[in-house]
């Protein structure tokens, strides 16, 4: 072991780069929002990309 941190691979992303791919929730932040939007849609959109179910599940 050399004691140096491993070199970053070309495909490794910086945390800030990952955050640019996540948009705020809600149809107003979508390029092509759906015509119908209800409470279930809102809760699902707010929980993405987390694997946890919405809070009122």
Summed up:
This protein is 25% helix and 0% strand. With 57 residues, it is mainly α.
Give the helix/strand layout.
Layout: H1 15-19, H2 39-47
List the main descriptive attributes of the protein structure presented here.
single chain, mainly alpha, elongated, 57 residues
Q: In words, what does this structure look like?
A:
The protein is an all-alpha fold and 57 residues long. 25% of the residues lie in helices and 0% in strands. The protein has 2 helices and no strands. The protein has helices at 15-19, 39-47. 0% of the residues are buried. The model has no long low-confidence stretch (mean pLDDT 75).
């Amino acid at each position: 072991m050399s004691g140096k941190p491993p070199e970053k691979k070309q495909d490794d992303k910086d945390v800030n780069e990952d955050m640019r791919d996540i948009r705020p929730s809600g149809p107003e932040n979508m390029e092509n929002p759906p015509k119908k939007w209800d409470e279930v849609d809102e809760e699902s959109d707010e929980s993405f990309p987390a694997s946890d179910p919405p809070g009122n599940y």
